[in-house]
Amino acid sequence: MKFSIISDAFQQMEATTKRLELTDILVKLIQEIPEDVIAKAIYLIQGKLRPNFEGVELGIAEKLVMRAMSKSSGIPLKKIEDDYNKGGDLGQTAENILQQKIQTTFASEVITLEKVYDTLFKISKLEGKGSQEMKMKYVSSMLNDATPQESKFILKILLGTLRLGIAENTVMDALAIAFTGKKENREIIENAYNVSSDLGKVAEVISTRGVEEIEKFQIKLFSPIRPMLADRIKSGEETVEKFQEKFAAEYKLDGERAQIHKQKDKIEIFSRSLEIITSYYPDIVEKISKLIISEDVILEAEVVAMNSNSGDFLPFQELMHRRRKYEIEEAVTKYPITVNFFDVLFSEGKNCMDMRYEERRELLEKIIKQDDFARLIPMSIIESKEQVLEVLENSINSGCEGLMLKHLDSTYRAGIRGSNWLKLKREYQNELGDSLDLVVVGAFFGKGRRTGKYGTLLLSTYNDEEDVFPSICKVGTGFTDESLDQLYQILSPKVTLKKNPRIVSEMEADVWFEPELVIEIVASEITQSPIHKTALDKIKEGTGLALRFPKFTGKIRTEKNSEDASTDEEVIALYKVQKKTENQE
Ligand code: ATP
User: N or C: which end of the chain has fewer CB within 10 A?
Assistant: First the structure.
């Protein structure tokens, strides 16, 4: 398939801001893609080469791309750099620059989608000595054959800056319309995606074997399942009202969610955002097989750091010591963990997701041989608000964040945030009633002890309808000297020359970042704001929502992508609850 078909569609998508139009263009594009390349095309549309959990990264430097452009066009590097510095988008620079080349050279070979994909894939595999030269060779060979417009999009994919505003939901809508004629059939596609976490594969199966096959999509060991998520709740009373009968109360531990896949002695661990994290936990790999009485299983657990002397749970940040490539053995001894199981999704060749909560818990109790390292999360079956308060108290006293309240009949609904699981945190009971996970998009330099560091951060929510990051507040409290240092180290490599177009803010930050890092914030109130852009026009025309007295909780949410941050809708919902409470008072 000619790459120009895809790049023409990308061009149209770039020009529109309306989600419906975007879906239409995508539907037409999908209908033109032959079945043997549809998986590759779907990954490219999302700006990647493989599903996230395979961890295939392109990792290429802008400088190298500019050299490749110069090589294939004969235009001096300096001129390319000047154009780039003016515009700040290397893809666009390529289009401008190569326009000049086209008049001087003969028409070259037509570039295909397969060629682009395969070359990008080869680039992703290159490492070590001589790899930079090889990367440059591959990039310039693609640029030799590509038109200026094609070059623009190839480079955007290569540099990870393809921002067409296509979220996974839009791709699923478009697949449903293209293959079944109806957007309503997206649910079938979503179910398949929820158990495979691989949209390319879903598209390939639907295209080659039809919708019926998608309905039969099975869980597969070592392909992560999208996690089931919980709704927030403010009180035990609300839980009793919602469930109307007995329910399970589990401690909500403050650690890292781990989806553990095991087949005989082979173990793989996936994070909440479905990346492979096995290498951070060699102790789990070493010990867990002996503690699980099942040949092949998929289990969910919360991994928590603990104090080896007292046995107490330690806060989530302590796990960050495990995020090392080297000296991991040392971290394993210095920062011990426990693995606290709370669900079983697959066992002995059988999908357990359709089993009721109680049955899954019973099975889990049979499968896990508990010891100091592996445990089951404490659970009790209760029915009154007084009991909720009592268990909540106990959980907080043991260093937990609160409770997870689960409906006894609930099946495991992959990828869904629903009311069968409710979370009740301690801080829900005061002020704003909840913490928010916000994206760090910019910063202002500090003064006094904070000189040379980022003293204040500019934060955004995620607007999933438009795939952008509108600002919600600045935060300058809650930081320790240590956390300021740590944030500086994480954030300084993310500084961009220009504000990323997905950041929506009127503020003039001292520096802008790629919107990638998520941190946890508490605040006293949500207020209407003429400056901030979260929920703009949703409550009142020309006005957004902002946080009053925001404070950093100390938690850097490395396990969350920026698209997992709190959304505009969540902030609106909290704002409405706050208004209702104010009116009652
Ligand atoms: P949060 O910010 O509250 O962690 P989240 O968006 O990561 O939210 P939620 O579904 O809202 O995910 O909250 C559930 C999270 O709590 C899980 O992702 C898991 O990491 C953690 N957790 C701790 N204890 C439990 C438990 N007993 N059952 C399920 N999840 C638990």
Answer: C
